[in-house]
Amino acid sequence: MIKNDNIINVRNLTIRYGNLTVLKNVSFDINKGEIFVIVGGSGCGKSSLLRQLIGLEIPTEGDIFINGIDFINSDNKQRNQILQKFGVMFQSGGLFASMTLAENIALVLETYTQLSDDEIDDAIDIKLASVGLKGFRDYYPAEISGGMKKRAAIARAMALDPEILFFDEPSSGLDPLTSAALDQLIIEINRIFHKTIVIVTHDLASILSISHRIIMLDKNVKGILAEGTPDFLINYKENMNVFNFFNRKPSV
Ligand SMILES: Nc1ncnc2c1ncn2[C@@H]1O[C@H](COP(=O)(O)OP(=O)(O)O)[C@@H](O)[C@H]1O
Ligand SMILES: [Mg+2]
Questions:
Q1: Probe residue for ligand 1, chosen from 14, 16, 17 as the CB with the greatest number of ligand atoms within 8 Å
Q2: Do 72 and 98 fall into the same domain?
Q3: The total number of structural domains that make up the chain
Q4: pLDDT tens digit string along 187-231?
Q5: 50 CA distance to ligand 2 centroid (A)?
Q6: Are 168 and 79 found together in one domain?
Q7: Does 45 sit in the ligand 1 pocket, CB within 6 Å?
Q8: In this structure, are residues 8 and 14 in contact, taking their beta carbons and an 8 Å threshold?
Q9: Are residues 211 and 146 in the same domain?
């Protein structure tokens, strides 16, 4: 069942909050090294699914395997080993406003590694340079632009050299040009650092420029409406909502 070119396997996942079933019996795989995009209308369960993938919530039913290891039923030690493979950027970015960019990244390294102060200093410079923020270590989040904040949050997500990066709506709040530049950064991170990247977004321009594979979730179906490469979904005639979304036509 589990192929070793998959880094994540989701099997029969059901997400329920009280009486509300958000997703029912959802299964999909994420390949090692790909940019995998989760799309779908507001309220269809994208963020909920992401929270389950990163272990913030436990599925109502179903299984999640990370590198073939059962994530849901893992013991504490295994679970912590898996969590160390994850880097996350939430929709809000989530930098600590009272800390400089360097301090934001240092906090992660101090908490989870045994690195010396000098090593942490070097790591901060390397991480900031890798997102195009060389020289900004002593800036506070309020002193930099929205696009730079996102870059800094990505640098922090990469602090522990994770295998998988999870981004929830990375381009939210950005103008189209800044958003396009962020897409380029995401493509570079994937190519240069060989990270698997899982992204929730409904920004079509971004989806078409960065994704290798996509799943489209749907509120009524409570599951995956369509799945495939951008090319496949642009030409998808089996469901007009899918076709219209990928061809930028208003939904029926
Ligand atoms: N912790 C929660 N408790 C109750 N309902 C929730 C919770 N999280 C999300 N929901 C509901 O689940 C549905 C999916 O939400 P969400 O995953 O945030 O969707 P999306 O990110 O696709 O907009 C929504 O109806 C939302 O109100
Ligand atoms: Mg959301």
A1: 17
A2: no
A3: 2
A4: 999 999 999 999 999 889 999 999 999 999 999 999 999 999 999
A5: 9
A6: yes
A7: yes
A8: no
A9: no
